[in-house]
Amino acid sequence: MHELTSPQDMHAWSRAERSRGRRIGFVPTMGFLHEGHLQLVDRARQRADRVVLSSFVNPLQFGPREDFASYPRDLARDRSLAAQRGVDCLFTPEVQAMYPTEPLVRIAPGPMAEPLEGATRPGHFAGVLTVVAKLFHIVEPDIAVFGRKDFQQAMLVSRMAADLDFGLEIDIAPTVRELDGLALSSRNSYLNADQRRAALALSRALRAVEQTWRAGEADPAALQRRGMEVLKAPEVSAEYLALVDEELRPVARADARTVVLVAARVGPTRLIDNVVLGEGVASDVPVRGS
């Protein structure tokens, strides 16, 4: 496995591989890899000849009171996991390499970024799309794979790639879950044992909404109330539970394409999750070996 830290070296490596007719798959991450990330690598491997994984904690997407400094990092572990999973090139730039000067020009994410995470984390998606755009230009992949757990982010990246004519395919992979339903996240490492159990309220709330919809209820307000009932649990403070379409607009009536998104704090840790009603939580991928 190659490990590169310079954007120029990464660009040259990718250009060389593409000149040999090889298709490049790309998995952008903020590191502290877990099985969810590694299954994105597997998916990229199925669609490409070479797989690039980036590990970069992007300061632009963290607010002033968010956890940039404390965000979990373990590059040695990431390096080992990436190599074991068959990553061909690990890109691990420093902040100074990605942002030699303060970036004055950033991606404006538009109205899809205003609700939900955008309302809670002002400026977050401008930071996300700016770094993703930079990474796309540096790596020049043929296909980039994102996880559906960060649904709003995935939809915004897809829309950016379409609207700005990036010459690549965006692939959205199912959420990876523990067998008890908890969606994998690097921030799960913040949870103690009691909080880990309490965090199951998010996936249970999604499952309750899905089951209520399958029983015939299509009124979004009624479905939201049902989800919020289940979300109430010790140490869980709900931020939102919303039913939207793929452009993050509230729906008048729930159907198989409706996405249910939830965000809550479990203790001090903020977690998000979602489900597409027609697919259900059960369609997501269990952790390998669990």
Structure description:
By secondary structure, the protein is α/β, with parallel strands linked by helices. The chain has helices at residues 7-19, 35-47, 75-84, 95-98, 117-120, 124-139, 151-163, 193-198, 200-214, 220-231; strands at 2-4, 24-29, 50-55, 89-91, 143-147, 169-173, 176-177, 236-244, 259-266, 269-276, 285-286. The strands form 3 sheets. The chain has a 6-stranded parallel β-sheet with strand order 1-4-3-2-5-6, with helices on both faces. A 3-stranded antiparallel β-sheet has the order 8-9-10. Strands 7-11 form a two-stranded parallel ribbon. Helix 3 links the parallel strand 3 (50-55) and strand 4. The model has no long low-confidence stretch (mean pLDDT 96).
What key attributes describe this structure?
alpha/beta; Rossmann fold; Pantoate--beta-alanine Ligase, Chain: A,domain 2; 2 domains; six-stranded parallel sheet; three-stranded antiparallel sheet; 10 helices
Compact description:
This protein is α/β, with parallel strands linked by helices and 290 residues long. The chain is 37% helix and 20% strand. The chain has two domains: 2-173, Rossmann fold (3-Layer(aba) Sandwich); 186-286, Pantoate-beta-alanine ligase, C-terminal domain (Pantoate--beta-alanine Ligase, Chain: A,domain 2).
